[in-house]
Design brief:
single chain, mainly alpha, 1 helix
């Protein structure tokens, strides 16, 4: 049976390696948070535009519906195509 004896070196990471790994990890975290923040901002702007478009479309549909239901009141007098005063009692 042979024994291995470590001469002068201990297994593990040095302080420099740990600092470099921590720096790289921090950089990756910062970049990930910036990308997430940017994506969230773009998402919110797009959602705002969609909401505005939907609200304006609903307003136009309501206006169109109201205009399509508008009709001349048969109880009011008006002038017809021949220029004669229309009598509501005749209708």
């Amino acid at each position: 049976m042979t024994r291995r004896v470590l001469t002068g070196s201990v297994a593990g990471f040095s302080m420099v390696e740990l600092l470099v790994a921590t720096g790289i990890l921090s950089l990756i975290m910062v970049l990930t948070l910036q990308i997430t923040s940017s994506t969230n901002s773009i998402w919110q702007r797009a959602r705002s535009r969609i909401d505005t478009f939907q609200e304006s479309r609903a307003a136009f549909e309501s206006l169109t519906r109201n205009l399509s239901q508008a009709m001349l009141n048969p109880y009011w007098d008006y002038v017809d195509a021949q220029g004669k005063l229309r009598d509501p009692a005749l209708t």
